[in-house]
## 1
Amino acid sequence: MIEAVDKDIAEAMGVSNACYEEISAILGHLPSVEDLSTLMAMWDGNGRQQGLLTWLRGIPHATEFNDYLYDGQREEADSFKEPRIKECHTIAHNLYGRKQGSAFSLPTSHPFMTTGESLFMVGNVSSQFLNSDYARRYLHLVSNPVDMGNAEETCNYIQMILDALYDNGTIHTIDEISQGGLFAALLSGGLPNGYGFDILCAREIRLDAFLFGEEPGRFIVSLSEKDDDYFLLKMDEARVNCCFLGRTTNGRILIDGYDFGSINTFAIPVH
């Protein structure tokens, strides 16, 4: 049985009483040393521009104004207000919730194989929605003027690097982020074998763009924790950006600590 730690031990680890209570609320139980260490490491990697408590409470992620959304009409900003994590939960179920009698596409040919595997997003963190289902249905965008430049060349280069790491056994799965964005790619990897995912989102961009944006040239990979350092070394040598997302689970989907439910309540619809 994993032993919970008290507030004094947490404070010695750099976690204030207020943060300790917030972490307990997120987890639904008193945290262990491992729980606190994991959250602190994720904060160190994703949220250092904010205080720990602010980061835990999931304030709006965006720090940059997405000019292309507004087309010069900033007075319409409320129409494009960034959703919070609870709203994204509802959006995800509206877009990908399993509906009886609906047709669903086949998931990826490289599904997640076990729980506790590291999940990384390889490529630039996207702030672009493009012509995604989310953009059309929720932001009412019919076109996106963002120039993707050499996206295909970048995508091919990253694919080449990842294929080499797959062939030598460093990474176990590769899935390109395309239609449906990051959320759909994670669903695609988890659905065949019923594995969920527990991730934290990048704080420097809009939460909805991070989850549902469809900018090309990005991939989801899974690998054993023991291979994390070697993988990151190879990404650095190849000058490819990547960020740690979290880990695979035994079927639950958690994003920023919010429970989205079982992965079996979702599906990838046929378009």
## 2
Amino acid sequence: MVFDWGLVQKAIPLLWAGWLTTIKICSLAMLLGAVLGAALGLASLSRLAPLRWVVVAYVDFIRGTPLLIQIFLVYFALPVVGINLPEFWAGVIALGLNAAGFIAEIVRAGVGSIEKGQAEAARSIGMRHGQILFHVLLPQSLRAVVPPTTNELITLVKGSALLSVISVYELTRAGQAIIAVHFAPFEIFLLIALYYYATISALAWFSRWLERRLPVW
């Protein structure tokens, strides 16, 4: 077997375009997941039992079904009820909804890790439930929440490769298009792996850097 370096040189800019799409999708999906996940995580701490049940049901569904099936549900099932999404936005929403389920649990666990004495002390000076949550518990839970959240972003980037099945022209799909023309799977898939490895390594470094700079309460 001869390694085709010429093809690798041609493929690098083509895969770069797919990589940029992957970054755009993951950034938007993580933003959606963080906002929705934080809201769900806080809702899980609500005193309203029906609201907590809804959150538990959503989180259980997300954690108990494959990401690929969730992508199919967004892309193929939503048109049945009249919601037609382009491939790009279907991918963003599917990944974002998936991330939200995990981030909700991260937020709930992070807030739950704070000593109960903190809330009791705040309550003793007349603070209401919402004030205790936003001014006492959430700031202190930040250090516990950020590392697993960045790990979720890493998982999201790796999971984005599944979007190739609905023809989103992200990194993996770009590689498949090149392979279909040049019939060189080894070189292209190795190059795709290096793109993902570099991206994940950068995110892992950022996670460690951010964790070191978080305040200690």
## 3
Amino acid sequence: MGKYFGTDGFRGEANVDLTVEHAYKVGRFLGWYYGREHKAQIVIGKDTRRSSYMFEYSLAAGLTASGADAYLLHVTTTPSVSYVVRTENFDCGIMISASHNPFYDNGIKIINGNGQKMDADVEAQIERYIDDGEPAIPFAVGEDIGRTVDFSAGRNRYIGYLISIPTRSFKNFRVGLDCANGSASSVAKSVFDALGAKTYVINSQPDGTNINRNCGSTHIEVLQKYVKENHLDVGFAYDGDADRCIAVDGEGNVVDGDLIMYVCGKYMKEQGKLDNDTIVTTIMSNLGLYKACDRAGIRYEKTAVGDKYVCENMMANGHSLGGEQSGHIIFSKHATTGDGILTSLMVMEVIIEKKQPLSVLASEVYIYPQLLKNVRVANKAQARNNPAVQAAIAEVESTLGDDGRILVRESGTEPVIRVMVEARKDSVCREMVDKVITVMDQEGLIID
């Protein structure tokens, strides 16, 4: 990871960590980078944060000053930007969003011409330009100056694409949607209504400051209550830019990304559509998912945390399904990035074709209790590789055996070590996590 760009773009508090000057320079670089041999065309989408407007205009100013044409999708989802880039032959796409973060944060996600997260080497060049002004990029002049183009039609084409994917009507299904007061507010209801569902929508009135606030996939309890009180068949919650989806079954139980991958993966395998009979997960997926996959004859691969790495593995090895516990799910036949609304459509397909409620489909997976604690340390690598810490980890692994696991990893964005344990009982999770943290404390690795 670079100085500014992490696994999911350049993110930080608006005008504190990520400023309009940063955005302008990102636009300046991309307009020049893609415009060296032709007039670049770059599409921009944004979520509903108050600061998304200023970043949209800053990026557009930078792009046009370098000679590129900026096409504005306005409020839309991250996966819609990915779709438009790869189907409309744009040089690249930019999504302004901090995903599930609070409204005062924002981010710049750059999507390459294939609709995937931008290559790290290009991000490194952008960082060099931001800090050092290299290379020296000339201003476009005269007729070479770029223009901005209203491209809301691109979002409408994406909506039409989503509607075209399901092969069965959703008629008679009562579906709840939590749009997190974010990007899904402009897309999700239209799709489900067109497919015939009786659609019930909450948190779909963004005001610039209420995105993700006590709603959406990070506050799933809101949708759980709503589904139960209104006797709905199923519910889907998205995050701010709608690249995540967490489901709720008709009984109010949470169906997270791991369970969604199992439900869809098993169905796809039965249909002969699960390429290589394999799903791609991150190291954070629950042990219960792997045990259920073993029983179903589904193979799995594990990547580092981040849907970017899941996507890279899928594309390199020809896999058709992958994702994260947090709800980033990639169906490579239809998309090149996580797509929350697409995920909900694929879950609906399984429910309809199997003629079973989601509660039954997901019941085959026993989710192991999991405990994750973040420990602030002075030096992440030193703490992670400390001999006494390593010995404690090995002892926990031996104690848990095949009935649990421990994962100790460095945060990519904070001075934090994450200690996670899965086991059959919550009490065992607490005991094993505390054992490792106690050793860190005894070794003088923890800071306040």
